[in-house]
């Protein structure tokens, strides 16, 4: 079963019912802080070489940067999200949701199951994550980024 079919069975409101997402006050200061930290992290990780020793850590850290951007967007929408999976459902565009969920699964395989990732796959994923961050920044964070 593909993620697209799964999206039909679950939705963002289901996570609210489960308590893994809560309505919260809009917090522009928190969003700005998350974005600032994500930018600084991106600058640092961009300075590192992707090699056999670094690819696992770089993949998980770029995922965390992406998740921070999504958290900033959610904060501006008045949500506190406690589940990485819920972020995929928070994304309204299925293509971005599918990509985020794929990155989440890769990150979980690395962190929780000791999986390896190739240098090539890491490079491709990081490139996609960077593109996704640009799309999200342009679409949802233009006002905050000024």
Please state the average pLDDT score: 92
Total strands: 2
The largest sheet, given as strand count, sense and whether it forms a barrel, is: 2 strands, antiparallel
Oligomer: single chain
Strand content: under 5%
- Category by helix and strand content: mainly alpha
**What integer value in Å does the Rg equal?**
15 Å
> Count of DSSP helices?
8
How many domains? The number is: 1
Inertia-based shape: globular
**Which CATH first-tier class would you pick?**
Mainly Alpha
- The residue fraction in helices comes out at over 70%
Q: Termini distance?
A: 41 Å
What is the succession of H and E elements? HHEHHEHHHH
CATH topology, by name, is Four Helix Bundle (Hemerythrin (Met), subunit A)
Which regions have little confidence, pLDDT < 50, spanning 5+ residues?
1-8
CATH architecture: Up-down Bundle
What spatial order of strands do you see in the largest sheet?
1-2
What do these coordinates show?
The protein has 146 residues and is mostly helical. It has a single domain, classed as Four Helix Bundle (Hemerythrin (Met), subunit A), CATH 1.20.120. Helices cover 74% and strands 4% of the residues. The protein is built from eight helices and two strands, in the order ααβααβαααα. Strands 1-2 form a two-stranded antiparallel sheet. Helix 3 runs antiparallel to helix 4, helix 4 (55-76) crosses helix 6 and helix 6 crosses helix 7 (119-140).
């Amino acid at each position: 079963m593909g993620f697209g079919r799964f999206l039909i069975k679950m939705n963002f409101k289901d996570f609210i019912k489960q308590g893994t997402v809560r309505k919260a006050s809009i917090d522009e200061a928190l969003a700005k802080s998350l974005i600032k930290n994500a930018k600084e992290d991106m600058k640092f990780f961009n300075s590192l070489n992707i090699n056999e020793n670094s690819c696992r850590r770089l993949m998980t850290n770029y995922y965390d940067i992406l998740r921070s951007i999504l958290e900033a967007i959610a904060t501006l929408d008045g949500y506190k999200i406690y589940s990485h999976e819920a972020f995929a459902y928070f994304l309204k565009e299925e293509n971005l949701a599918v990509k985020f969920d794929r990155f989440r699964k890769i990150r979980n395989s690395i962190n929780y199951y000791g999986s390896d990732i190739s240098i090539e796959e890491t490079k491709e994923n990081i490139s996609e994550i960077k593109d996704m961050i640009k799309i999200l920044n342009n679409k949802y964070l233009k006002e905050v980024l000024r």
